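User: Predict the complex with guanosine-5'-monophosphate.
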Amino acid sequence: MAEITIKGLTFEPYISQEEIAKQVERLAAEIKRDCVTDSPIFVCVLKGAFVFASDLYRTINMPKSEIAFIRYKSYVGTESTGEMNKILGLNDNVTGREVIIIEDIVDTGLTAHALRSDIEVMNPMSVKMATLLYKPESLQVGKVPEYVGFEIPPKFIVGYGLDLDEQMRGLRDVYVLKKKD
Ligand code: 5GP
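Assistant: Here is the predicted structure with guanosine-5'-monophosphate placed in the model:
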Protein backbone atom coordinates (compact mmCIF):
# COMPACT_ATOMS: atom_id res chain seq x y z
CA MET A 1 0.00 0.00 0.00
CA ALA A 2 1.44 3.33 -1.03
CA GLU A 3 0.80 6.87 0.19
CA ILE A 4 -1.89 8.84 -1.66
CA THR A 5 -1.80 12.62 -2.12
CA ILE A 6 -5.02 14.41 -3.01
CA LYS A 7 -5.96 18.11 -2.72
CA GLY A 8 -2.45 18.74 -1.32
CA LEU A 9 -2.99 16.31 1.58
CA THR A 10 -0.99 13.09 1.95
CA PHE A 11 -2.59 9.95 3.38
CA GLU A 12 -0.70 6.87 4.52
CA PRO A 13 -1.97 3.29 4.90
CA TYR A 14 -3.43 2.72 8.37
CA ILE A 15 -5.69 -0.36 8.52
CA SER A 16 -5.54 -3.08 5.86
CA GLN A 17 -8.55 -4.72 4.24
CA GLU A 18 -7.52 -8.00 5.90
CA GLU A 19 -7.59 -6.43 9.38
CA ILE A 20 -10.96 -4.83 8.57
CA ALA A 21 -12.41 -8.16 7.40
CA LYS A 22 -11.34 -9.79 10.69
CA GLN A 23 -13.12 -7.14 12.76
CA VAL A 24 -16.22 -7.36 10.56
CA GLU A 25 -16.36 -11.10 11.31
CA ARG A 26 -15.96 -10.46 15.05
CA LEU A 27 -18.61 -7.73 15.15
CA ALA A 28 -21.06 -9.79 13.07
CA ALA A 29 -20.69 -12.71 15.50
CA GLU A 30 -21.19 -10.42 18.54
CA ILE A 31 -24.26 -8.71 17.05
CA LYS A 32 -25.83 -12.03 16.05
CA ARG A 33 -25.16 -13.47 19.52
CA ASP A 34 -26.76 -10.45 21.25
CA CYS A 35 -29.91 -10.17 19.09
CA VAL A 36 -33.01 -11.22 21.02
CA THR A 37 -35.23 -11.37 17.90
CA ASP A 38 -34.55 -12.85 14.46
CA SER A 39 -35.71 -9.73 12.61
CA PRO A 40 -33.64 -6.72 13.72
CA ILE A 41 -33.49 -3.66 11.50
CA PHE A 42 -30.07 -2.28 10.61
CA VAL A 43 -29.86 1.42 9.89
CA CYS A 44 -26.93 2.38 7.68
CA VAL A 45 -25.80 5.98 8.06
CA LEU A 46 -25.00 7.32 4.58
CA LYS A 47 -22.80 7.99 2.95
CA GLY A 48 -19.74 6.91 4.95
CA ALA A 49 -21.07 3.63 6.37
CA PHE A 50 -22.25 2.12 3.07
CA VAL A 51 -19.16 -0.08 2.53
CA PHE A 52 -18.94 -1.25 6.16
CA ALA A 53 -22.72 -1.82 6.31
CA SER A 54 -22.64 -3.86 3.12
CA ASP A 55 -19.92 -6.16 4.50
CA LEU A 56 -21.33 -6.33 8.03
CA TYR A 57 -24.95 -6.93 6.95
CA ARG A 58 -23.98 -9.78 4.62
CA THR A 59 -21.67 -11.31 7.23
CA ILE A 60 -24.43 -11.21 9.88
CA ASN A 61 -26.60 -13.03 7.33
CA MET A 62 -29.93 -13.11 9.20
CA PRO A 63 -32.58 -13.79 6.55
CA LYS A 64 -35.38 -11.98 8.41
CA SER A 65 -33.34 -8.87 9.20
CA GLU A 66 -33.84 -5.65 7.22
CA ILE A 67 -31.64 -2.73 6.24
CA ALA A 68 -32.65 0.93 6.03
CA PHE A 69 -30.73 4.10 5.19
CA ILE A 70 -30.47 7.48 6.84
CA ARG A 71 -28.28 10.44 6.02
CA TYR A 72 -26.77 13.19 8.14
CA LYS A 73 -23.94 15.54 7.28
CA SER A 74 -21.64 17.35 9.70
CA TYR A 75 -18.25 17.35 7.99
CA VAL A 76 -16.78 19.75 5.44
CA GLY A 77 -13.23 18.87 4.34
CA THR A 78 -11.32 17.42 7.30
CA GLU A 79 -13.28 19.28 10.02
CA SER A 80 -16.60 18.70 11.77
CA THR A 81 -18.88 21.73 11.44
CA GLY A 82 -20.53 20.80 14.76
CA GLU A 83 -23.93 21.18 13.09
CA MET A 84 -26.15 18.25 12.15
CA ASN A 85 -28.09 18.37 8.90
CA LYS A 86 -30.57 15.58 8.29
CA ILE A 87 -30.58 14.92 4.55
CA LEU A 88 -32.53 11.65 4.44
CA GLY A 89 -34.91 10.49 7.18
CA LEU A 90 -36.05 7.03 8.18
CA ASN A 91 -39.33 5.92 6.57
CA ASP A 92 -39.19 2.33 7.78
CA ASN A 93 -41.23 1.29 10.80
CA VAL A 94 -38.92 0.68 13.76
CA THR A 95 -41.59 0.64 16.50
CA GLY A 96 -41.07 -2.38 18.77
CA ARG A 97 -38.06 -3.52 16.71
CA GLU A 98 -34.45 -4.17 17.63
CA VAL A 99 -32.51 -1.41 15.87
CA ILE A 100 -28.78 -1.53 15.16
CA ILE A 101 -27.35 1.67 13.73
CA ILE A 102 -24.32 1.13 11.48
CA GLU A 103 -21.87 4.06 11.49
CA ASP A 104 -18.50 4.46 9.77
CA ILE A 105 -16.87 6.47 12.55
CA VAL A 106 -17.83 8.06 15.88
CA ASP A 107 -15.82 11.23 16.47
CA THR A 108 -17.47 13.93 18.64
CA GLY A 109 -20.52 11.68 19.05
CA LEU A 110 -22.88 14.41 17.79
CA THR A 111 -24.15 12.37 14.85
CA ALA A 112 -24.54 9.20 16.92
CA HIS A 113 -26.38 11.10 19.67
CA ALA A 114 -28.76 12.81 17.20
CA LEU A 115 -29.43 9.52 15.45
CA ARG A 116 -30.20 7.62 18.63
CA SER A 117 -32.54 10.38 19.83
CA ASP A 118 -34.37 10.49 16.47
CA ILE A 119 -34.84 6.71 16.50
CA GLU A 120 -35.71 6.44 20.21
CA VAL A 121 -38.77 8.70 19.78
CA MET A 122 -40.13 6.04 17.38
CA ASN A 123 -40.38 3.58 20.34
CA PRO A 124 -38.11 0.76 19.18
CA MET A 125 -37.49 -2.28 21.42
CA SER A 126 -33.83 -1.27 21.66
CA VAL A 127 -31.22 0.85 19.88
CA LYS A 128 -27.57 -0.14 19.60
CA MET A 129 -24.74 1.17 17.50
CA ALA A 130 -22.04 -0.60 15.52
CA THR A 131 -19.18 1.54 14.24
CA LEU A 132 -16.09 0.58 12.30
CA LEU A 133 -13.99 3.30 13.95
CA TYR A 134 -14.29 5.15 17.26
CA LYS A 135 -12.18 8.08 18.50
CA PRO A 136 -12.64 7.91 22.32
CA GLU A 137 -10.57 11.05 22.95
CA SER A 138 -12.89 13.12 20.74
CA LEU A 139 -16.20 12.00 22.27
CA GLN A 140 -18.17 14.98 23.58
CA VAL A 141 -21.73 13.72 23.83
CA GLY A 142 -23.66 10.47 24.03
CA LYS A 143 -22.85 6.86 24.72
CA VAL A 144 -19.86 4.74 23.82
CA PRO A 145 -20.94 2.64 20.79
CA GLU A 146 -21.90 -0.94 21.74
CA TYR A 147 -19.92 -2.51 18.88
CA VAL A 148 -16.55 -1.01 17.87
CA GLY A 149 -14.27 -2.29 15.13
CA PHE A 150 -11.21 -0.19 15.99
CA GLU A 151 -10.51 2.45 18.64
CA ILE A 152 -8.27 5.10 17.09
CA PRO A 153 -6.64 8.40 18.10
CA PRO A 154 -8.24 11.67 16.94
CA LYS A 155 -6.83 11.63 13.42
CA PHE A 156 -8.49 12.16 10.04
CA ILE A 157 -9.28 8.91 8.23
CA VAL A 158 -10.33 8.09 4.66
CA GLY A 159 -11.14 4.97 2.63
CA TYR A 160 -13.53 1.99 3.04
CA GLY A 161 -16.47 4.40 2.66
CA LEU A 162 -14.95 7.42 4.40
CA ASP A 163 -14.30 10.48 2.24
CA LEU A 164 -12.35 13.63 1.78
CA ASP A 165 -14.94 15.92 0.18
CA GLU A 166 -16.63 12.93 -1.49
CA GLN A 167 -13.41 11.41 -2.81
CA MET A 168 -11.47 8.31 -1.62
CA ARG A 169 -14.55 6.36 -0.49
CA GLY A 170 -13.70 3.41 -2.75
CA LEU A 171 -10.28 2.64 -1.25
CA ARG A 172 -10.28 -0.94 0.07
CA ASP A 173 -7.97 -0.07 2.99
CA VAL A 174 -8.25 2.69 5.59
CA TYR A 175 -5.78 5.59 5.30
CA VAL A 176 -4.80 8.30 7.78
CA LEU A 177 -3.88 11.92 7.10
CA LYS A 178 -0.14 12.31 7.42
CA LYS A 179 1.19 15.14 9.59
CA LYS A 180 3.03 17.82 7.62
CA ASP A 181 6.85 17.56 8.12
P1 5GP B 1 -19.31 13.06 14.83
O1 5GP B 1 -20.73 13.56 14.71
O2 5GP B 1 -19.15 11.88 15.74
O3 5GP B 1 -18.35 14.17 15.16
O4 5GP B 1 -18.85 12.61 13.40
C1 5GP B 1 -19.51 11.63 12.71
C2 5GP B 1 -19.40 11.81 11.23
O5 5GP B 1 -18.36 12.73 10.85
C3 5GP B 1 -19.01 10.50 10.64
O6 5GP B 1 -20.15 9.73 10.34
C4 5GP B 1 -18.22 10.91 9.42
O7 5GP B 1 -19.09 11.13 8.34
C5 5GP B 1 -17.57 12.21 9.82
N1 5GP B 1 -16.19 11.99 10.32
C6 5GP B 1 -15.75 12.01 11.61
N2 5GP B 1 -14.44 11.75 11.68
C7 5GP B 1 -14.03 11.53 10.41
C8 5GP B 1 -12.76 11.16 9.83
O8 5GP B 1 -11.72 10.97 10.50
N3 5GP B 1 -12.75 11.01 8.48
C9 5GP B 1 -13.86 11.20 7.69
N4 5GP B 1 -13.71 11.03 6.38
N5 5GP B 1 -15.06 11.54 8.20
C10 5GP B 1 -15.14 11.68 9.55
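Residues 48, 74-75, 80, 103-112, 156-158, 162-163 surround guanosine-5'-monophosphate (CB under 6 Å).
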